[in-house]
Amino acid sequence: MNHTREINALFTLIDDPDQEVYETVSDRIVGFGKAIIPNLEDLWENTPSEDVQERIETLIHRLHYTDLVADLAEWRDSAYHDLLFGALLVAKYQYPDLQSTPVLQDIEKIRRNVWLELNTFLTPLEHANVLSSIIYNYYNLKGNEVTYSQKDDFFLNKVLAKKKGNALTNGIIYQVMCGLLDINAKIINIPRHFIIAFYHSDYEVATFKGHPQNKIHFFVDATTGQAYSHAEVENYLHKMSLPNAQQYYKPLSHKKIIQVLLEELSKCYSLPSEADSQREILSLVALLDK
User: pTM for this one?
Assistant: First the structure.
């Protein structure tokens, strides 16, 4: 790392009691980018003061968060919003050193097992049965209701490691599988529910005129893999006092799915001591709208 003399001088000022001095010093340190993190970690290990260690931890978090903002902005501006990569970026908020290789290996294992059971003669419902059987029975992925006391249920790396997620993360895994296997099934915009619609093979959201419900075979609950009929979904909307409107049957864009994941994740940081974290996550939500 270059600028060693300047860095060492800045490090001696991390414990400055003057808040204005500290803010100037911390801004300058963050300006070096994440390459300075090993230096900060070394300083942390050799610092007896817990207050200084806390400041160093804050600086390291700022550096990781700045890097995440840049990566998410690049994902937002890309021509294709890869859903799996977007979900991994969300996980990097809590696990900045996340390695994607184990996640990709788990996804490939599931994909291969499903692919081995598929053939061109299967009906859409049989496709769904194979997917659900492999994901929820053979791979043993469990689904919880969305609960804000379980942060790890929102992070895809932890969901795959523990084989336990919620409707959002299980739904993302299910849709990623469908994309890899050329199955036209996508998460839709049903309020307060995360379900997947199995569309007719010729359905394209950008070109189809008419009610998209007419192009859906059936639905799958992302939490458990259970299939739902049209009547069951219509009954759910009726119980919610909602119309059977077109907007509920259109697939959510990958960007919108990641926004929903972030919005729900932010609710996990509800304690007064977590206010900064909640604000940061909501800033990521807003970033995707720019």
Answer: 0.92
